[in-house]
Design brief:
This protein is α/β, with parallel strands linked by helices. It has one domain: TIM Barrel. The protein is built from eight helices and 16 strands. Strands 1, 4, 5, 8, 9, 10, 13 and 14 form an eight-stranded parallel β-sheet that branches. A hairpin with a 2-residue loop joins β6 and β7. The longest helix is centred in the first third of the chain and has 21 residues. It is globular and about 55 Å long. The termini are far apart.
Length: 319
């Protein structure tokens, strides 16, 4: 009987600890790592590169419950993480502009976002939990064959890109038609990047993609070809290059943060569950906001990991 009582008390304590963590009550650590999640298809059935709408919704619920809040990739690059104290940033990215990510349907005499599409699921969840934040980056393929050419609804291409740009989401460069940049010479690589931007700007004039996600994770011979340059009269400039794997990203305040090689977590069942569980068990390794954008709070033992150039511009708080 005593053994059962002890086990019951241990289980209760464990559940309380999970609840405490999930409620966003972790000690601040702004040198912790950040999950950049990589989604592809939002559709049926669940497969290697496909997440069903229901499972995507479950992902959002799990993240929210465990104290994660959405920020854009641009916020990471700007080191502008404005979140409540005790919460953790998470970044959503969607590759390949497949139709299930953003679909319009006709309903009740009007055109509406399909509630079963990725954006529909996300918008509905945000409406229920506005403190979750509104953010995601869509890496589109403007010149791809069907069904990946700008979400596969030609009549709504412009409307969709304009919606994303005007509702707090980001549009990212993914090349014109998902070219494996490791296979091509400089001129072709630059044309793939520049022409993708041209197509985006046809619908959203003056919009500049700040980041590029590499198709297949394949780097060109020289990464500078995708960072800055011009082709066919169009100039482009990217601040970050995203990979297709690699785990959580270092904090942007950390010396190890490399925007030219930003790792991501593929949002498939096994990998996503692994990393959520990992940070549950190792909360000291996850980025936790201190609630003050003008300060950066770091563990005293890890102060040497802070980027040197940040010390004069940010108030460093040790704990």
């Amino acid at each position: 009987m005593k053994l059962l009582l002890v086990l019951s008390l241990i289980l209760t304590a464990a559940l309380l600890l999970v609840s405490f963590v999930g409620a966003g009550n972790l000690a601040p650590n702004e040198l912790g790592r950040i999950m950049i999640l990589e989604y592809h298809k939002i559709d049926y059935p669940e497969e290697r590169w496909t997440r069903t709408p229901e499972n995507f919704r479950r992902d959002l619920e799990t993240l929210y419950t465990k104290g994660y809040r959405l920020i854009n990739l641009g916020d990471v690059l700007d080191r502008s993480i404005k979140l409540p104290a005790g919460t953790t940033p998470v970044v959503l990215t969607f590759d390949d502009s497949s139709p299930g990510q953003f679909r319009y349907i006709e309903a009740n005499g009007s055109v509406q976002i399909d509630p079963k599409s990725g954006l529909g699921v996300l918008e509905a969840f945000i409406a229920e939990k506005p403190d979750f934040g509104r953010a995601a980056t869509f890496y589109v393929l403007p010149g791809a064959s069907k069904p990946n050419r700008l979400f596969n609804q030609p009549e709504y291409e412009g409307r969709k890109l304009q919606y994303l740009a005007s509702h707090g989401y980001e549009i990212g460069n993914h090349t014109l038609w998902h070219a494996n940049l490791a296979k091509y010479p400089e001129a072709t690589v630059r044309a793939q990047v520049a022409e993708a931007q041209v197509w985006i700007q046809r619908h959203v004039p003056d919009y500049r993609t700040r980041t590029i996600a590499l198709p297949h994770g394949a780097y060109p011979t020289d990464v500078n070809w995708v960072l800055n340059g011009s082709a066919k009269g169009t100039t482009y400039s990217h601040e970050a290059v995203l990979m297709v794997a690699g785990g959580p990203a270092p904090s942007p305040f950390s010396r190890s943060f490399d925007p030219v090689r930003l790792p991501r977590i593929q949002a498939v069942e096994r990998e996503l569950a692994y990393w959520i569980d990992y940070f549950d068990k190792n909360p000291g390794e996850r980025f936790v906001s201190d609630g003050d954008p003008a300060a950066v709070t770091v563990p005293a033992a890890h102060r040497d990991r802070l980027r040197a150039e940040l010390k004069p511009t940010l108030r460093v708080v040790e704990r």
